[in-house]
Design a protein that fits this description.
Helix content is 42%, strand content 22%. The protein has 324 residues and is α/β, with parallel strands linked by helices. The protein is globular and about 60 Å long.
Length: 324
């Protein structure tokens, strides 16, 4: 069989990429030790994603040991410079991050942003859920909507870091209801634990976060889910979308992994191969089901292009909402 020039070049490139990956003996993990950097406090979405990667990688025999470092604050903008400066060129390190970092970088005018790291893969998407404490005065979406229309400043809402996905969702809701997003009474928290405590303690009127971060409290009846921000309902969760409720807002939070700047092509390819095998594992597929995460897997150049578009879109949106 004769190959065309295009087919020959494609085959050659695939072979070269394969040769750049570490050769794994039968039963030997791809990485004896892999360091996972989480630019957030324990207990939140990024930390949960990192721990899920560890469980799936170990179950699949892809890693011997995983070491974690958590540095929280400002939507990843406290930890990110540390990762960039201290991990440069290291091929056995991954950082978990996501769409929150884009808005946080813009809001904080950070000199080091998600543009300074090496994209490896987008893993998941998760719709936000708007909740109220079961012990609070507001019980339904119509009551929350009426309160926002009356005075957004009086409706305090807990969520993740300023400028992150939760903050954007609130701004978009307020705008869709005909009010000024700059009047949002948003209360930012560095991790899921403190936000949960504020909601359950009736310190705020409502809360916004990924469904998995509130699921335990919702299941226990301590929080009431009023709406989700995705394009469709979360499978197995009987909560309407904002669109169903007549509010023209759709926004989801994606999470992924990144390598340090300065890694070689071979190091980058090895990390892509590692996370690709993690994603294909039965253990990871079960994590998606258990945590109600949507599989949004994308690697290499498509992920880089999608990331660049997301950054550009959020810069425009945040200016429109008065958050930049």
């Amino acid at each position: 069989m004769q190959l065309t020039k295009r087919e020959f070049l494609a085959l050659s490139g695939a072979c070269a990429a394969t040769l750049a990956l570490p050769v794994r003996a039968q039963g030997k993990p791809m990485f004896e030790t892999l360091n996972m950097f989480v630019p957030a406090a324990p207990g939140g979405g990024w930390d949960s994603t990192a721990r899920a990667i560890e469980r799936a990688a170990k179950a699949a025999g892809l890693v011997g040991n995983m070491q974690f470092e958590n540095v929280g604050g400002a939507g990843g903008m406290v930890g990110l410079p540390r990762f960039v400066n201290q991990r440069k060129g290291q091929g056995n390190v991954l950082m978990v991050g996501g769409s929150v970092m884009i808005g946080a970088g813009i809001a904080n005018k950070s000199p080091v942003t998600i543009k300074n790291v090496t994209p490896i893969a987008r893993l998941t998407e998760e719709a936000g859920v708007i909740v109220v404490p079961a012990a609070g005065k507001i019980k339904t979406w119509k009551e929350l909507e009426a309160a926002i229309r009356a005075n957004p400043k009086a409706v305090s809402v807990a969520g993740g870091s300023a400028g992150g996905t939760d903050h954007l969702i609130l701004g978009m809701i307020i705008k869709a209801l005909g009010k000024n997003p700059r009047e949002a009474a948003y209360v930012a928290f560095a991790g899921g634990g403190p936000a949960n405590a504020a909601i359950l303690g009736n310190q705020v009127v409502a809360g916004i976060s990924g469904y998995s971060e509130f699921e335990e409290q919702i299941t226990a009846g301590r929080m009431i889910p009023l709406a989700v921000s995705g394009k469709g309902r979360i499978p197995g969760v009987n909560v309407p979308t904002l669109s169903e409720l007549g509010v023209n807002v759709t926004e989801s939070n994606w999470r992924g992994v990144f390598a340090a700047p300065g890694v070689s092509d071979a190091q980058r390819n090895a990390l892509i191969e590692f996370i690709t095998r993690v994603r294909a594992s039965a253990a990871w597929q079960q994590e998606l089901v258990t945590r109600k995460w949507t599989d949004a897997f994308m690697t290499e150049r498509p992920f880089e292009r999608d990331l660049a578009k997301d950054i550009a879109d959020k810069e425009v949106l945040m200016k429109e909402l008065g958050l930049a």
